[in-house]
Amino acid sequence: MENIRIQGIGSNGHKKESYMVNIHPKIIELLGNRGITDIEVCQELLSEQPQMTYDPFLLHHMREGVDLLLTSIQQKKRICIYGDYDVDGITSIAILFTVLAQLTDSLEYYIPSRFDEGYGLNKDALKKLKDRGVDLVVTVDLGSVAVEEIQFAKEIGLEILVTDHHSIGESQGDCLMINPKKKECSYPFKDLAGCGVAYKLAQGIQRTAHLPKRVLLDVLDLLAIGTIGDIVPLVDENRTFAKYGIQKLNQTTRPGLIQLAEGASLVPGRIHSEQVSYVLVPHLNAAGRITDAEIALKVLQEDDQEAVRQGVDILLGHNRERRRLQEEAVQSLKKRVEPRKDNDLFYVIYTKETHEGIAGIVAGKLKDYYRRPVAIVTPSESGVKGTSRSLETINLYELLKRHKEFFTKFGGHAMACGFSMKEEDIPGLQQALNEDLENLLRENAHLFEPERRVDLKMDPGEITVDFVEALSRLAPFGSGWPKPVVKLENVELQKVIPMGTMGQFYRFQMIGVDGSFLKGVCFQQRDQQPEILSGTRADVYGTPEIHEYNGNQSLQLNVLEITRRG
Asked: What's the pTM value of the predicted model, to 2 decimals?
């Protein structure tokens, strides 16, 4: 670490005076390679107390939504928070419920069943809520495309307030809607998660009702989990949410999160964004995938230690079952895809065997493996339902929206969409999507090719403990702000040793042209890498990390790709 003088460019385009900052020089180079030269942006990225946030009342209909809620509370109306069954929806419910519970006891929540009701508002649920005395339904993480359901709610005397972040169709429901993606909305940041929108509503309530700020601080851990879990870009206000939220998570007194972290072998106080993404989120999502999402919500809200323990045990078991079902489905559907992999550009796979709860994950795995957008379609009572995942180069929502005539229900965003349709229309949809992608491929021949982003080119000896610790200041990492990737050029690979139960992974040493060396570990499947033997010279791409084992620390590169030389 040393003092580096930075010349920044201000937001008005004028040069700012240079100043001294204690930061590793390679981090300055990395930020420059990502196009970040502004002093204030650098400070915001590195700060433990980021300031990037906006007035909640900049959101369209926020003032009206807050007034509706507070008036309903004053009139002792019964309020139901209606949310999705994934981690974004679950944390959204928990955030808004926690804040509204400061003002009223006449409060409940509703989570539709993935298997019996599917995503979003449905008329049967709304009728059920009306019959048991609910006056106002507040949606979280859903509702933007529920035009018919909102009209039905009005007809039976239910008021509706929609809070959501998903893309909006050509028509909107006749109700108050808080969604940064609305055309009428001038909110500066459009990529909030559903829980982010719920949190902004909570901010509006807190300010207007003069609640103590601690009610917002108390839910920051939930906000981080939902934001990271929904894979929205971790930039701008989302980055602020995630950074403060992870700090709160590592100090949480929430019994469910403490026990879940321990049960998943996480170290309290040292949880980072990747562990949220790959450990906590899958366990919380497993409830809605296997049985009932309410289990996860109760784990987040429950104070009774014994009830929490039972709930956590269920989540741990559900996640094990989810992983088993997922692996079986991936292997089974690969056999279905192989005969057609060169004929179709968009894989629409109809399957009666795949568990509906893990269809989205499996679609994502196949998308990554084949580098093609994938939709997995399963039977439903009224036809079939599909869940789809896309590559970063293809806007899935816009692609599917062109063919809305095939769908009886449709919604989502650029990378993931869900839909319902008739089984007999699947071949027509497949053909239409193939034709669309043929056109896109003519415009961009590299449409399906992975883009290997490189932040820095380094020698093995330049990757030091100081450098890796300096990298950690750029966390949290995730969508839109990926973990930095370094490229080690022309290194010699030595001591190549297979790992894993089937030898599918390997570790080795990398020796640079200057004689410096570094350990490497590759968890990419060997069938997706060139054959690696001792003595091979290659360019190696990966993320530097400090590996801890039995109390010992060592530097290594988590290898993402190997390109042989010669």
From this structure: 0.89
